[in-house]
Every structure is written in C-alpha cells, then in structure tokens.
Amino acid sequence: MSAPSLFGSRDERLVEPRSLLSSIGEVAYSWDIGSDTLSWGPNAAEVLGAVSAAVLQRGLAFAGLVEPGSGRSRYDAIFSSGGHDFGDGAIYRTRYAADLAGRKMWIEDAGRWFAGIDGRPACARGVLRLERAVRPEELASVDTDLCDRDALVERVDELLAEHLPAERSVVVLIAAIGELSRLNSDFGHEGTEEIIEEVRQRLHSVMRRRDQLMHYSGNRFAILLGGCPSNQIEAAAQRFIKAVSRSAVETSRGIALARLRVGAALAPDLSRHGSMLVKAAENALAGAEANAAETAVTARRTAAAEEGGEAPRFDLEAVAALNERRVRLAFQPVVTAKSRALAFSEALLRVERPAGGFLATAELVPLLERRGLVSLFDHRVFELAMAHLTERPEAVLSINVSPRTLAAAEWIDSFEASARANPVATKRLIIEVTETATIEDSGRMAKLLMRIKQRGGRVAIDDFGAGHTSLRHLRAFPIDILKLDGAFTQNLRRSTDDRFFVRTLLELAHHLGVETVAEWVDDELQASMLCDWGVTYLQGHLVGKAELNLPEETQQDPRLRAAG
After folding, report:
1. Where do the structural domains in the chain lie, given as residue ranges?
2. Cα dihedral angle (176, 179, 184, 186), rounded to 10 degrees?
3. Residue 82 confidence (pLDDT)
4. 88 near 541, Cβ under 8 Å?
5. Are strands 220-226 and 260-267 parallel, antiparallel or unpaired?
6. Roughly what angle, to the nearest 10 degrees, separates helices 409-421 and 374-391?
C-alpha cells in the first residue's frame, strides 16, 4: 500500500527541502581537502547549533570536535578507507561522537571522496546526520592518554620550542592500525577496542623515556621523538611496527593480527610549526596506508619547494591541453528506472596529459574556477557535445555548465547561434546547473535558463537536495529534470531518515511535473527502492561507469542491462 501523498489535490502545502533536512537532523557538506575548506548546506546552524564559524570552515578543525576514542573522524575515514576513485568517487562512512558547542552527539558521517592529480583524496561530498545525545557512561572509559588533534598540535609546538633552539631535530610519527574496517567487521566494536588498547600498550612498552605517545582519532597514535636525526627515523618506526606485529592479539571475540602503518615528518627540515608537521605526517600516513607499506613513509618537501619555485601549474597544463586538442568527453549512461533502457548520457570533461592519463577532474575544475579559466573548458565541452550529437542522431547528452560560464554573454550567445544552426541536435542536449547556482541572482538565472529552453534545449538541476533552493524558486525556473544528490541516495540501505527524505523529494518533483535522476546508484536494493518510489532515471556504477567511448553495442541498441 502506498504512503499518503504530501501534496493533495486541494492541499497545496509545500515541504521545503531545507526544513525537511533540519527536521531529520541532516546537513550536506563539501570539503576541498587540499585547502582544507569546508562548505555546508544552508541549514548547518539549525542542525549543528552554535559551533564557531572558524571550526565549521576547516575540515581538520571540525575533526577536532570528535570525542577521543569514539570513532574515526571524517579525515581518518577518508584517508584510511583503502578505496580508489576510478572517476566516480570512493565511498567513506564513519560514526563518532562530537562536542557541538557543549552538546555531545553521536553522528553518522558518509559520502564519497574524489581523487586529485596524485590519486589521493582531493575533495569530498557527503551528509552528516545527528543520531542521538551521548550518554555520560559511553565515554567514561576513554583512556587518559587520549587527546584531540588541537591538543596534539599544542604538544608538538611545546616540543619544538624545547628542542629547536638547541638545534635538536623533532620527529612526528603518526601511526594507524591497518584495515580497521575489516577488524570492526570481524570482531565488532568491543573486540576492536581491545585491539586498540593492546596496540597502545605495545607501543608504550618500546618507547624511550623522552618519547611521547598520544592516542587520538580512533585508530591513530602520535609518537613524538625529540632529538631523532633523519637517518634514524626508519629505525625508530620499525621499533614500533615490530612491537605491534610481533604476535597475535587475543580478544574476547577471537585472535587478531594487527599491522601498523606509519607516516613521519621531521622538524626543522620540513617545517617549524606543529600544525604543518602533524598534517604532513598524516598525509605521509595516507601514502603508507594506500600502499600497505611495511616501512615508514616520510613526508618530503616537493622539488619545486626545495628549489624555491612554485608547485606544478596544472592550470597551465590544462590550457596547453586545450590548445593542443587534448580535451575529450567521457560518457556515463543514465537509464530509465523500470526498463534500464538508455535515456541519455552525461558527457564529462577529461583533460589528457602528454605522457598519457588524464588530469583529475575533481581537483582540476575547482582550480580552473579559481583561475577564471573554467569558461574556456565549458565552451570546448559544448562544442564537442554538439559535434557528437550531430554525428549520432540517436544520441542524447547532458553537459555541466558552471554558473560563471552561464552568466557570461559569450556562452549563451554561442549556444543560441549553435541552436539556430542545428536545432535538431539542440533538442537532444540537456544543460545541467548545480543547485547552488540557482540562489545567486535567481531572477537572472531563470531568464538565462528560459533562453536555453526557448531554443529547444532542456534544463536539469544537479546535486539537488541540500536545501539551497526554495520551492518558490523551483517554480520560477524552467526545469525539466531534478538530479538528486547522490550523498542522500547512497545511504538508502542504512538510513530510514534518508529514505523518507529521498521519497519526499521524488514526490515533490512529481508535484512540480519534472523528471528525476538518482545519482550514485550502486546496488539493486537502491535501484529497487527508487523505482518503487517513482524515480524516472538511474545513474551510477550499477548501470554503467563513465567511459571515453560509447560501446558499439550501445550505439546500435539503446537498451542497457544493469552491470553486476
């Protein structure tokens, strides 16, 4: 039996996505990991309360709110996930207790991280959900050696102040128990806590008297070594690695083998600041975890920094690729929910490097936006898309256009000229703009989108659901398709709140008379629920990843079967 509708034929009560999100204690966010810039949905204050703006604006500062020993922070969850981004992001999920301005709450934090130029996490998109208040006894057993990240940085600064004036070096080791998610799965929370405690004791047993050991962020330990020269870092790390792996750990849930991964940073060679050393050691640890290294990975100054130059200019490399016609399109299928027939493909930017491979879009596009270069690439993607549509009369494509590009007269003029020259192809083109793009000068944006509609193109709102756009604005925009933010559809298996939220968004779209796309659909359970709730299209790994070339069978037969 279907649930009663929120939108009766006579009752025009409209549910605002922002209010609905706040009512279930959820807020969406995006995190630029390289710059450590954290951006929240518009309902952040309603959900998180009086947390200071300085903390909310930085990912590592927010990680400092995590109660020691309660679970992995978002930073830890991403850098110890062990996943790989093959173009569509890698899933992360964690649960921890956090102190939100004196209000201690259990939080579920989940999303996807996207790789940068070096293959490591560069940015993330996710949803934070408040579960319930923390009971005092739940954190009463926390080890007294635990500290948060801010306290760790303060301790490192104290050690630097003691040793550097005497020209003695300081080494910061950040060590983590490998494959913690597997241990959690095999031994449960209690068994994992026993493993962490045994590891702490083994580390403590091989410390020198002047060494300092701190446990922070779930499975991570910081070991501070005063007066340790660079040529002794590996020997010191091996002392701790071998202490942990020398024998199996006996727990109440069984016997476990624990392995330690270690990242290191040296002062003053790398930096004289505690925050920089801790971050560098954490980044080095991420490399050790990614490669399952049995030795310490030591943070190094980049070659450009050692020579006094600048970091590699990927924006210049991208512009060179544009001039040399090395900008290409990758195509990800979007299929009808019920039949799995190909409805259209999303055309995605790929910038080829001279020696092979591609620049990571997740890091490249924000860089191009900061440099004011994104419009050049939006123009090229549009040209390639129109050429593709002209060559393949059966194809239907969607392309992403940045707000800055769309607002420029050059792009919309170019679109209209192309539409006049090839109206048939234009009718098979969908222009995607993000939900956030609709809130700045919404009146002008509505007029621009209407010009696209008048020339035969269709309009989609991407990443919809974070609550930026009010229903009043949605009614004013000439929208054909709403693409639901994958950060919400990803959690349908686990979260009844997200099921309620996504189902309500789908009913809202039906009420407005627009089609819907569910992003990040990875399994049949997700697809089945979304189909039952009336979603129009599915997009994600289940139905196809982004490929540089459309398969021949797809060109001849537009029907797709679900992968896996």
Report:
1. 17-136, 149-306, 326-348+374-556
2. -140
3. 64
4. yes
5. unpaired
6. 10
The topology under which CATH files domain 326-348+374-556 is: TIM Barrel (3.20.20)
Q: Tokens 């024998």 correspond to what residue?
A: 247
CATH: 3.30.70.3400, 3.40.47.10, 1.20.120.450, 3.30.450.20. Which one for 17-136? 3.30.450.20
Tokens 């998109």 belong to residue: 125
Alpha-carbon distance of 328 to 548, in angstroms, equals 8
Q: Mean pLDDT in the chain?
A: 86
Angle value at C-alpha 125, between 122 and 128, nearest 5 degrees:
130
Q: Amino acid identity of 280? A: A
The reply to whether omega before 136 is within 30° of 0 (cis) is no
Tokens in use for 496?
Answer: 């009844």
Rounded Cα–Cα distance for residues 57 and 222 (Å): 25
> What is the reported pTM?
0.74
Angle between helices 314-323 and 361-371 (to 10 degrees): 90
- Contact present, 73 and 63 (Cβ < 8 Å): yes
CATH topology for the 149-306 domain: Alpha-Beta Plaits (3.30.70)
pLDDT tens digits, residue range 75-133? Answer: 878 876 667 887 789 999 998 899 998 899 999 999 999 998 878 889 999 999 999 99
Q: 243, 233 in Cβ contact below 8 A?
A: no
Rg value, the chain, Cα: 26
